[in-house]
């Protein structure tokens, strides 16, 4: 008999009425005290534990039942705790308190399906066959936890420990740092199919920047611990990542030289060119980045950036309609000095 355990002061007894076809084979246990939870876990081994209790997760329970480290654990946490949340073990997930019943059911269904998939497919075999970055991205999307954030939500903060490697599946994310005067300096823009959070290869490195969604975004993520194990099993992936990071450093050096010596017009044109593929797509709905953020990427003031846009528009190189910027002559834009 398979169990899903709800550990909560709240009454979840009505939840059993909402079983979907995918969950019909599971029984639900509703427990409201730590003593009863210990007693239950000594007798039965659940497939999933949902922790929605004010009592903090007890390491004693897991140490007394080591097999629970392979059991999915879902914490229901407050919105204020999301930014500082740290997983208790590799199969620890969370859901905000504001979740709906439908969201909870989907999460439970996903975790139980994930457990079954890993049982039959063999996660260890898969993780040992990742020779390059593209395969790593496929692995994160297939095996990682999916998380969705609304616009202007912080994914992680500067100077905090990072627990995850992220893959942007859909959306737009910016990274930034604060200077001594409290001014935000944008350090990067991340789009679909880009990795975020590569700040080191040790356990839970410190984030050197803050990541914030520019639009509603969906990402997949894996724990740093799992990422490190993947690297240890795949020397080809380590070399590919080393080359990727080297290319990133060289690109950043070029950007630093540009910010130091290039003209304001050149900085503006190069910033627009970063989004050339999107801007020249006939189905593109327009940049969702503010002029202030674009100016920060260019390393100039918003006023200078807007004046440069007007100049490029007058020369017929770009067109501007509302917030939308379209490239009319990419060759001229590339050769601006």
TrEMBL record:
What InterPro entries does the entry give? cNMP-bd_dom (IPR000595), cNMP-bd_dom_sf (IPR018490), Env_Response_Regulators (IPR050397), HTH_CRP (IPR012318), RmlC-like_jellyroll (IPR014710), WH-like_DNA-bd_sf (IPR036388), WH_DNA-bd_sf (IPR036390)
Domain (Cyclic nucleotide-binding): give its ranges: 145-234
Q: Which GO terms describe its cellular component?
A: cytosol
Question: Could you read off the lineage of the organism from its UniProt record?
Answer: Bacteria, Pseudomonadati, Bacteroidota, Flavobacteriia, Flavobacteriales
Arranged from A to Z, the UniProt key words for this protein are: DNA-binding, Transcription, Transcription regulation
- Which positions fall inside the HTH crp-type domain? 262-331
Domain of life assignment: Bacteria
Species for this entry? Salegentibacter salarius
Which GO MF term does the entry hold, naming one?
Answer: DNA binding
- Pfam families attached to this UniProt entry: cNMP_binding, HTH_Crp_2
Q: Which Gene3D superfamilies match?
A: Jelly Rolls, Winged helix-like DNA-binding domain superfamily/Winged helix DNA-binding domain
According to UniProt, the name of this protein is HTH crp-type domain-containing protein
């Amino acid at each position: 008999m398979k169990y899903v355990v709800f550990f909560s002061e709240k009454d979840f007894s009505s939840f059993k009425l909402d079983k979907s076809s995918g969950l019909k084979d599971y029984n639900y246990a509703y427990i409201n005290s730590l003593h009863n939870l210990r007693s239950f876990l000594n007798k039965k081994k659940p497939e999933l534990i949902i922790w929605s209790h004010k009592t903090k997760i007890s390491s004693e329970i897991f140490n007394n039942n080591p097999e629970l480290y392979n059991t999915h654990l879902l914490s229901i946490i407050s919105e204020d705790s999301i930014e500082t949340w740290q997983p208790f073990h590799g199969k620890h997930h969370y859901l905000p308190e504001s979740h709906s019943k439908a969201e909870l059911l989907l999460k439970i269904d996903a975790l139980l399906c994930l457990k079954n998939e890993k049982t039959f497919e063999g996660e260890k075999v898969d993780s040992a066959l990742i020779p390059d970055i593209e395969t790593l991205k496929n692995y994160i999307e297939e095996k990682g936890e999916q998380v969705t954030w609304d616009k202007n939500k912080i994914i992680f903060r500067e100077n905090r420990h990072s627990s995850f490697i992220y893959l942007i599946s859909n959306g737009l994310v910016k990274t930034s740092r604060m200077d001594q005067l409290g001014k935000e300096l944008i350090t990067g823009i991340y789009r679909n199919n880009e990795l975020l959070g590569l700040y080191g290869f040790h356990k839970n490195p410190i984030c050197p920047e803050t990541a914030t969604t520019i639009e509603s975004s969906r990402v997949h993520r894996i724990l740093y611990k799992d990422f490190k194990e993947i690297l240890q099993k795949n020397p080809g992936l380590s070399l590919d990542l080393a080359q990727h990071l080297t290319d990133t450093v060289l690109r950043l050096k070029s950007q630093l030289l540009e910010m130091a010596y290039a003209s304001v017009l050149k900085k503006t044109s190069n910033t627009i060119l970063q989004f050339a593929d999107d801007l020249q797509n006939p189905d593109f709905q327009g940049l969702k980045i503010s002029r202030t953020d674009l100016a920060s990427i260019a390393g100039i003031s918003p006023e200078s950036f807007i004046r440069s846009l007007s100049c490029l528009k007058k020369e017929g190189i770009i067109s501007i309609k509302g917030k939308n910027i379209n490239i009319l002559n990419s060759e001229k834009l590339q050769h601006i000095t």
